[in-house]
Amino acid sequence: MSVFIYTDRGFCTLRDGDIQWMMPDDLVASGMVRDENVTVLLGGVEYRQVQGKNTRGVLPDGFMVREERLKGGNTLVLGAREEMLRVVYDVFKAGKIKACVPYGLAVRAFLLSRGMDLEDVLYLVVDDAGERVFITVIDGAALVETRELDLQDAHRLVEEVRRSEKRCLERSPSRAGVKIVSNHQGFLEAVAQVRSAEDIIAIDGKLFVFDVMSKALFGIHFTSPQEDAVRERQARWRQGLMKNVLPFVLCTGSVLFAVMMSQEAMNISLRTKALAGDISRKETTLKERLLKTCDDRVRKSRTMSWEESFINLVNSISGNWSMQSVVWETRIDRGEQLSAVVIRDEAGAFEGKGILINAELSPEIVNGRPAIRIFAGGKS
Question: pTM here?
């Protein structure tokens, strides 16, 4: 993986352990752009911290904007100039760039990788980049500024860092502490004369932020202006679709729903009528059956004559039985009825083949033979 810092002064990278600054054309001619996995750290990025989420108009036209949510409901707005991004994506094709992020984010990732607590602490980071120096200010995990200076004079660097610290503390005076982090040997010696050793953190190595690029993950990435313009057009198209097409779809859906409900209501009405007709037919059938049952009960409840009772009795006796006696008698509970005794001639159960209305059967023994006394007829 190749890592480059890009500012208005050109591209900066490490090659064989040495810091190299090259203009875009020189970088292309060197062949270093052939790497398929490139990370570009952007210098000259503008940082603005705003209250809430309304970031419209924070940066002027000509900046590509990204946002980062901070604690307390604030938003950090990061803006990179479009002309710088055009140069980056002209030198490295879009497919080769793994990440294009602000240089300040790489500094913050480095501090976190070293286990430094960024909460309520002001960090002033001085990175020796050979011909130039980067000063990055991080206030409570929020990026404040990154400046690129053509300075190697250590005492002037101390003054520049003090100026950045003063500006930041004027905005946020309540800080738990101030830490100075640097790999610039001359600056570290000079600042040690005016600051406590507890506030100074020395780092070994050139362009120390490069060490974490292979592992760092960033939530912000700057694409090419062309790609960003395409995404913006797509977003506007979706907004127009939601604004113009969606109401039509909703209106059409409402009409179709009304038609479907009307058809369903019609179907329910037809089913209701069919059900009512079926209920009516069943009620008629039930009435007919009730009337027939009533007629049968009325017919069966009448007093039968001697002749009808005798005929029913004769018809009810099977061939295995013979009639022993038959009389017409009067009973208090049933009135007049036929009383008969039948004797079994052969083996076989008594089977009534005719209709004995409310007949009573009582087993008896007559002359040593099984017999049955039958009371039949009269009122049912």
Answer: 0.61
| DSSP state, residue 358 | T
Whether residue 214 is found in the same domain as residue 260? no
Q: Do 18 and 105 share a structural domain?
A: yes
Q: 9 to each of 6, 22, 49, 148, 285, how far by Cα in Å?
A: 8, 8, 27, 9, 104
The residue range of the domain holding 188 is: 2-223
Instruction: Give exposure, 88-122, as e/b (b: 16+ Cβ within 10 Å).
Output: bbebbeeeebbbbbbbbbbbbbbbeeeeeebeebb
3-state secondary structure of 238: helix
What is the residue whose two structure tokens read 């007709």?
277
Q: How many domains does the chain have?
A: 3
Residues 86 and 244: their CA atoms lie apart, in Å, by 35
Looking up residue 171, the CATH number of its domain turns out to be 3.30.420.40
DSSP 107-136: HHHHHHHTT---TTEEEEEEEEETTEEEEE
Q: Encoding tokens for residue 282?
A: 């069943």
> Taking the alpha carbons of 297, 301, 304, 310 in that order, is the dihedral positive or negative?
positive
10 Å Cβ neighbour count for 314? 13
The answer on 165 and 18 residing in a single domain is yes
Stretch among 58-62, 66-70, 186-190, 295-299 having the lowest mean pLDDT: 295-299
Contact 65, 59 (CB under 8 A): yes
Helix axes 225-240, 82-91, angle to 10 degrees: 120
Q: What mean pLDDT comes out for the span 78-101? A: 90
| Domain final residue pick, 239, 271, 300 | 300
Q: For the residues 158-183, what does the mean pLDDT come to?
A: 88
DSSP H helical ranges for the chain: 24-30, 82-91, 103-113, 154-171, 185-191, 225-240, 246-300, 306-316
Question: Quick check: 312 and 326 in contact, CB under 8 A?
Answer: no
DSSP 333: T
Domain boundary, last residue among 168, 193, 223: 223
Q: What is the mean pLDDT of residues 189-210?
A: 93
In a shared domain, residues 278 and 333: no
Same domain, 216 and 319: no
141/94 same-domain check: yes
pLDDT given at position 142: 87
Mean pLDDT over each residue of the chain, to the nearest integer: 81
